[in-house]
Amino acid sequence: MIKDNQRVFNRVLVLIDACLLAASFMGAYFFKFYILNPGPGPGVLSPTAYLNLLFIIIPIYMVIYFACDVYAPKRTIRRRFEIYGIVKANTIGILALIILLYLIIREFNVSRSVMAFFYAFNIVLTSAFRWFLRGSLRSIRSKGYNLKHILLVGYSRAAEEYIDRISDNPQWGYAAMGILDNNIPAGTLYKGVKVLGSLGNLEVILPQNELDEIAITLPLKDYDYLESIVATCEKSGVHTKFIPDYNSLIPSKPYTEDLMGLPVINIRYVPLTNTGNKFIKRLMDIVGSLVGIIIASPVMLVAAILVKFSSPGPIIYKQERVGLHNKPFCMYKFRSMGVQSVKEEKSGWTTKNDPRVTNVGKFLRKTSLDELPQLFNILKGDMSLVGPRPERPQFVEKFKEEIPRYMVKHQVRPGLTGWAQVNGLRGDTSIRKRIEYDLYYIENWTLGLDIKIIIMTFFTGFINKNAY
Questions:
Q1: Beta-carbon-side half-sphere exposure of residue 181 (alpha carbons within 13 Å)
Q2: The pLDDT of residue 344
Q3: Model-level pTM?
């Protein structure tokens, strides 16, 4: 039923998008020649000529919309990703149109301004319509209409997590009709979803029910049944998806690659293993650290003088930290304590009202000014402007045994600031929580995220209430 509805819905959507394209294009024409100007001047193509261009524009855009998955189901996709798809499709479309009109057909009388306005108008109109449509559909689904009925095959942690998510998001329009499992007694309920029977009941249920989807959520110990279950589901023609029960093994988003027809699942996607991404980030680090050193040099000079007169000892404190690929390096900081022995230094973290911290050191720590010399670490390549904070070797040895996935943070360069730091996880805060934020950064890195973190640092990252 849902499949049939989706086909009809997509056809209507294509028709509406064609109307929006026509409205945007002719709207751009009238905006250019009747709003910004008193009327078309000599040599300007007539409205009829522009209308005739729609017989080229609409088919081209429809093909591009399908290629860019503009008509793919968007139940669980966030708004910004849907808007991104529209912008991407329109960008490709306008480039194709420019090449066709100006380089192939060589129709130079089509106004460049009209093309620019058309690009902007169509993005705004299509996005606004999709926003209205999404809101309307979500409202309808949250009231119990237009639901997608799903049967879960296998009771596992993955099944529970799947039910949790669809229960918490009724606007998605998913309804779990029940669970089949060999080990859980029939009648067992989880958040209102009942175990209907064993896996063998699948062949009986499929012909009797109008299911929209089968979600295979087998526990790891029952994966021997996977092949036969997939074969049964495929024979029924019902859309089948596999939700693997490997959260404990692959806790974050994996990615797949095709090895000459053999699908390979990579446990973790780290964008910064890409050579191009590494080059861009390193270039940003070099430029950023040089600019930072120049701008911060007066502050560092004053800090150096204050440290020198605060207590006997060196101005710069060098401490061994663990960096990229678990390699140790010397991290630079302005000295904020009195000179200590190696044993005292390794005794532990600084605590509240720690007598080892000088008065100048307290101020430097609270304002994070003690970390400015790390700009030279960044310039050298030991560190990055943005990344997980580096830790001392003895704590790395301790945490890697206690905290799952702790060592993943060493797949990228450590940073002067980071996603955990700008979210308040600095100093004496939860290491586990910090690792969660570090992993999110590592797996979701973009240049835009780095810029966002740097901007957030100026508003949230300098004053450290957890620094002692």
A1: 25
A2: 60
A3: 0.57
- The whole-angstrom separation of Cα 358 and Cα 306 is 11
CB-based contact 180:196 (threshold 8 Å): yes
Distance, CA of 184 to CA of 405 (rounded, Å)? 31
DSSP assignment letter at 457: I
User: What are 292-323's pLDDT values in tens digits?
Assistant: 999 999 999 999 999 888 888 899 989 899 99
State the Cα torsion 327-332-333-337 to the nearest 10°. 80
Length, in residues, of the chain: 468
**Closest by Cα among 419, 436, 414 to 281:** 414
Q: Are 210 and 186 in contact (CB under 8 A)?
A: no
> Where in 217-268 does DSSP place strands (E)?
239-242, 255-259, 262-266
3-state secondary structure 169-228: CHHHCEEEEEEECCCCCCCCEECCEEEEECHHHHHHHHHHCCCCEEEECCCHHHHHHHHH
Residue 400 token pair: 């890697």
Q: How far apart are CA 178 and CA 195, in angstroms?
A: 6
pLDDT at position 459? 77
Contact 435, 409 (CB under 8 A): yes
> Which helix (H) or strand (E) segment is 321 a member of?
strand 316-322
Smallest CA-to-CA distance from 25 within 109, 161, 125, 103 is with 125
